[in-house]
Amino acid sequence: MLFNGTSAAGQLVDKPGQTIATEQRNNMYWALIAGGSRGIGYHIAEALAARGYNIALVARNGEDLLAARNNIEKTFPVQVEIFSSDLSLPDAAVEIAGWCSEKAFRLKVLCNAAGRGGPKDYLSLPPADLRNMVRLNLESAIELTLALLPLLQKNAPSNILNIGSLAGFAPVPTKNIYSASKAALLFFSYSLRYQLTGEKISVSCLCPGPVFTKPSIEAETLKQLGWLGRQMAVDPARVGEIAVRNMLKGKMLIVPGMLSTLISLILRLLPAGLLVRIFYQSGKRKQ
Prior knowledge:
alpha/beta, single chain, nine-stranded mixed beta sheet, 52% helix, disordered N terminus, 287 residues
């Protein structure tokens, strides 16, 4: 059942008649996953639910949210609340924070998993789409973290998990804005971790290589990377488990998979000028 919100940025999605909701909120901690209805975000939600966290899911598509809630509640003895919000809109973070306060969540974990990629990037997309990519990949995480920081401080020790990408370790001409926004998110995570020193809030950044969450991603990866992309790929559920396990250990940088970890080390060691030439020549050969 949908309850219309007060602006275009978000609307409540809830189920009526929850007689045990208040008791559960008072006795269990919550994890909020922005972009948690599908993909990596959903599997992170599952891994947190398996550890006894109540789950607050935020995403744009109401039907996907309902399906995600039903799946998690059928599998784990936790409560799931859902909120439909377009995270690319300026008022989204404020509305989500208001919803959390209204629900009196004891927020222990914030996961910023919303993002946008795809085969088209700079020079191939109109400015509106490029702005949308930057909004989802970077700005939404910055704004939502700031809006929910008081709740995380109140329930510390707590955790923030940002979802970056292996592409954030190098300038990739075929994925210019995507790699740039993920690099910015990684540096934001590093800096925020030290800004929150003494607050008992740990900041982590997940930087996975290929994760086949839908057929189009698999097809694009195999087209660009071929056999190597197949070898680098990690199952989405395993990515979620690795992310949550390492986040709760307080690890800053999380790269799932041995091959992706090795490649991430190489990317960090090589000069950016050399990397961009390699990726540019590789992209030309694929055309």
